[in-house]
Amino acid sequence: MKSATLALLVLAASLSSWSQTNVPGNAVKSSKHYRESGVGNATGRSGSANMVARALLDKDGNTIVEVTTGTIDSANTPPGSFRKVQFKPLTAAGNALFVHNYFPSTASGYYSFVSPSLHRAEQIQLQGNISGIDRNRTDVVTVVEVVKTRPDLAVGNLTFPSSAFVNHPVNISANIVELNGDASAATTCVLTIDGNVVDQMRNVYVDAAGSVSCAFVYTFKATGTHTIQVTAANVVPGDWDTSNNSSSGTIDITNPMTAESAFASFQDNNGGFPLSRTTTSKQWYLGNLVEDVSDTSGQTGRSQLSNATFSSSGCTGSTNAVPWQFPVKVTYSENMDGAPVYSFTDQGISGNSISYTGYNFPICRGMVANEKLQYGSAYASDHWNYLSSYQYYDSAGNLLFLGQTVQSQRYAGDVTYFSYGYECYYWDSPSGTCNNPSDYYTWNSPGQDVYGTVVPVGGTWVPTVDTQDAAGATFSGSISVSLSSTQQTNSQPETCYNYGPDLDGYYYQNCSSSTNNYIITEGSASN
User: Cα 436 from chain centroid?
Assistant: First the structure.
């Protein structure tokens, strides 16, 4: 159980010093971006001097223009220094509206300024005079940058069971989508329980118009209702709208009891995803309209996720639960409206076995003194499969209570990132010496498809899981889930910003509106 695992590990070392020893073969270090499909930043070179430029349009209508001789968003000090930066916004015909020259007051290889006059997809010419790189020479680098809408990360599809047992691991996941479609972003995916930060994963990269999942596992140490929240924090290069950066829900944690339970959920988002946006820009000079442009961008997408969990637990003699004997064969299938739509077989999931002592609580007319736990996870086709079983014994070694669970989950989006707690629980050896977990992701589809394997949607979804362990013991479950479809339309009405006159006598009006329009087909069931 994760609570016991974490309790032992925290006594031995802090979370920041942990590392996992059994990293899956399909795991990829997050320093390698899974895809880069947004509008790129402008780059140019003269002699040994390199210049990178980026222009990001904010929600308030201002554009932050940045130039650097190093790498954008890097903590490293860029070489050389800008003596002058020249800025020319261009008309649709490629003519300069005006010229501004900036003379940085401090010597640095990075410079930025704010312009209220730019619109999405507008081209701007930037010229940097750079000293301190080529000896006795000032390098002049000229680039043309395209104004991009700042990335907007939104957290949704928060997935976890409605209830769970105290001191037992609970798998939690959430989906992060980039809505604006121009620029990528990096974030820290943070899990909070009852307002307290308990786990995280750093370096979560989301491509422009991309979608990723964050996977956590957490053990609740107290019964009652608890609040779960997942947040996309510390967004770089800064988020368009932080109001959609979190998603939350509640879970009911109870004491172990005799029960046979099943829980399943399914969700499919299809259509105007992430969203469409329309921008207009008008510019006047000396009372004459000199620029009037309109731009509409958008695309369609799809996100599909599912979860099926089957459990059995109870006092000795009252349950069919048994300890897992690894390896375990898992066969999974899905039916939609009675027709088979998906299936796979994982021939053998390996796992861990751990014993815990020092317990002292009553159950099944006895007093628990120790516990044995078997657990494991593995990736097959588009799904992660999770196995766990546990047994409570009294001080004389008599088996009092036991439980068994199998879960098969398909995460939403392109890739799934794993938290430090997840890696230390599922990817560490049973020794409890997890030190320095790194940042990893896995593709949600073996073929690295944008949307993964997408099953056709209907009115009734039935997931079935069958298992057989090395001792020949079987454990299975199936549940029927009714699905319903609704049209989701979220619109931001047109918002306009007016500026002027500026130092050159120009007046500006920039307007934007957006629509998020898609069909969501979803349902969940439990018994």
Answer: 21
Record: fold of 42-149: Immunoglobulin-like (2.60.40)
Are the beta carbons of 476 and 470 closer than 8 angstroms?
no
Encode pLDDT of 177-195 as tens digits: 998 889 999 999 999 999 9
Please give the residue that has the higher pLDDT: either 182 or 13. Answer: 182
Q: Whose CA is closest to 437, among 7, 17, 19?
A: 19
Residue 86 burial (C-beta neighbours within 10 Å; 0-12, 13-18, 19+): middle
Mean pLDDT of all residues in 376-391: 93
Spell out the residues 6+ positions from residue 183 whose beta carbon is closer than 8 angstroms to its own.
38, 39, 56, 148, 149, 150, 151, 208, 237
Task: Note the helical H segments in 285-437.
Answer: 420-426
Name 270's Cβ contacts closer than 8 Å, sequence gap at least 6: 300, 301, 302, 457, 518, 519, 520, 521
Alpha-carbon gap, residue 192 to 226, rounded angstroms: 10
What beta strand segments (E) does 58-179 contain? Answer: 63-68, 81-89, 100-102, 110-115, 123-131, 139-146, 148-149, 153-159, 163-165, 169-178
Q: For residues 370 and 359, is the Cβ–Cβ distance under 8 A?
A: yes
Rounded-to-integer distance, Cα 256 and Cα 166, Å? 7
Q: How many C-alpha atoms does 60 have within 13 Å on its Cβ side?
A: 7
Q: How is residue 492 written in tokens?
A: 């931001």
